[in-house]
Give the backbone structure.
Amino acid sequence: QLQLVESGGGLVQPGGSLRLSCAASGFTSDYYAIGWFRQAPGKEREGVSCISSSDGRTYYADSVKGRFTISRDNAKNTVYLQMNSLKTEDTAVYYCAAQGLLSVQAMCVMTLGDYWGKGTLVTVSS
């Protein structure tokens, strides 16, 4: 059974950090680009950061450039999102997704994925 499971969300103060993990099972994730997306209450889902399957290409939304870093460990079938200097506007449910054909930019901009996790809540609040 193909599955993506997010973890690492929680409550953090503005300026703090969190690291999200996306663990893949049931398939070899290194054949897929993996992306992180988020959806805040009342807003549409948006692409945050995506990473290619093999050559390490990455894409970041302008709103997170310089603060978030995406990485992957294919040996562990896991992709990470290190989030630093968090802001209240980063509050959202964060989802990871996998897809096999699109570029990382297209995946993130069009919020497209073949497989999706159920999400993990990140709350940035004082």
